[in-house]
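Module 6 notes. Inverse folding takes a fixed backbone as the condition and produces residue identities as the prediction. Think of it as a translation problem where the source language is geometry and the target language is the twenty amino acids. Below is one complete input and output pair. Work through it position by position during the lab.
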């Protein structure tokens, strides 16, 4: 049976690939726990001096461009005034969207606090860099922000998918060649080009420069020392041996970030809130046969007092044998907005792009 691909691929026309009849199968849907999450948020709001917001992504979700518009809709409704306390839990995503989110949040308030009970990785670390203060709990960690990317001229993996290539990997190959090569007069790039197209190497180097620039600009929203901002940005991009390296609160302080301990009550309450979000974000997969299935999955959640926006993947997947990959059909994925009206949840679709 072909291995399923859960990440996004380009949409294809379904005109010549009709799915088999569902034969009365009930398509699974994820639970919407708005009333329960709001109950926890109201408890938190009652104990904080400022506006509390959440920004949560599942393993299948990521920080992306349309999150900025969704965040704007929440900010417009909750109307923050003094400061924002933002709960962030994410494995990362698009760093440029992190910069846009920081700019948006600071358009509404002058002070931003990011609270991190769990992982705040990659582009989410970039987001945290824009806070005046980061509060971290016993389970929380940041990560480096070194860049890897997919390129149309890049190598493919055994599943016929384009493989990720990272600047650190390329540089380590060059360093090892320089150190151990028997023929010192041979240019290592000439050998590397046999396996990596020159445009891929150039694109990776450019992406690294972009990552450093993004970190520096985000830090400058609260750091006046340009040299210090550049030092932290370069360290996060080049001084760690793995992209998944967990930067603990202790190490984050040594790096130069303003990190304080997360209040134990707030830490546990955020973990309870994360439990509900994780239940909402469970994979709701309906199998039709070994070549076709449907995926309903909540991947991103942004919430404040009285309002929740979540993005739900809603699509069919079909396996193309000739291409050895999964493609999407009948895509109806979109944002949903939940509010309370007359004591009952009101849910409407929101399309953002």
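Target side of the pair, the amino acids:
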């Amino acid at each position: 049976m072909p291995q399923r691909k859960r990440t996004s691929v380009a949409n294809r026309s379904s005109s010549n690939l009709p799915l088999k009849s569902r034969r009365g199968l009930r398509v699974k849907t994820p639970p919407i726990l708005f009333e329960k999450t709001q109950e926890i948020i109201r408890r938190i709001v009652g104990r904080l001096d400022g506006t509390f917001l959440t920004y949560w992504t599942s393993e299948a979700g990521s920080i992306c461009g349309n999150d900025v518009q969704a965040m704007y809709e929440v900010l417009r409704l909750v109307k923050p005034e003094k400061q924002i306390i933002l709960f962030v839990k994410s494995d990362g995503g698009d760093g440029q969207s992190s910069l846009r989110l920081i700019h948006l949040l600071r358009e509404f308030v002058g002070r931003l606090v990011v609270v991190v009970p769990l992982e705040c990785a990659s582009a989410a670390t970039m987001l945290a860099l824009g806070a005046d203060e980061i509060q971290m709990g016993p389970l929380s960690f940041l990560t480096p922000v070194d860049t890897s990317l997919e390129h149309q001229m890049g190598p493919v993996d055994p599943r016929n998918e384009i493989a990720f290539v990272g600047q650190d990997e390329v540089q380590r190959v060059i360093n090892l060649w320089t150190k151990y090569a028997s023929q010192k007069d041979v240019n290592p790039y000439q050998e590397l080009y046999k396996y990596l197209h020159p445009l891929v190497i150039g694109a990776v180097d450019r992406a690294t420069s972009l990552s450093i620039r993004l970190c520096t600009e985000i830090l400058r929203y609260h750091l006046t020392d340009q040299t210090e901002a550049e030092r932290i940005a370069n360290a996060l991009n080049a001084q760690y041996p793995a992209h998944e390296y967990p930067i603990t609160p202790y190490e984050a302080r040594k790096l130069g970030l303003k990190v304080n301990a997360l209040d134990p009550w707030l830490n546990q309450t955020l973990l309870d809130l994360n439990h509900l979000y994780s239940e909402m974000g469970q994979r709701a997969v309906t199998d039709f046969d070994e070549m076709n299935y449907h995926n309903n999955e909540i991947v991103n959640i942004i919430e404040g007092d009285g309002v929740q926006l979540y993005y739900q993947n809603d699509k069919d997947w079909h396996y193309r044998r000739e291409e050895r990959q999964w493609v999407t059909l009948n895509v109806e994925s979109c944002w949903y907005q939940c509010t309370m009206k007359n004591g009952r949840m009101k849910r409407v679709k929101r399309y953002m792009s």
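Reference fact for the lab report: The CA atoms of residues 216 and 230 lie 6 Å apart.
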